[in-house]
Design goal:
mainly beta; four-stranded antiparallel beta sheet
Length: 80
């Protein structure tokens, strides 16, 4: 059985140094993704996901270049 899904999230990133350099130590991290969970054997689920991730200080300082990243994620989980 194949189950598609979508994810949306956000958070706050505090750091000891400025990220990126010349910016601020407080940033925000919105993200979104989509994937599928595939039922394998009786208790095994394989999850494939693609996620977009952004880091930005939301103009808390004049320097706000932002950092974008994306990644693929694969997971195996065992259900009981």
């Amino acid at each position: 059985r194949v189950r598609p899904f979508a994810t949306v999230g956000a958070g706050v990133l505090y750091s000891a140094g400025e990220i990126p350099a010349g910016s601020t130590t407080v940033n925000f991290t919105p993200q979104l993704g989509a994937g599928v969970a595939v039922q394998g054997d009786e208790d095994v689920v394989y999850t494939f996901e693609y996620r977009l991730h952004h880091i930005s200080n939301a103009r808390l300082s004049e320097n706000n270049p932002g950092i974008n990243s994306s990644f693929f994620q694969f997971a195996v989980s065992f259900e009981r």
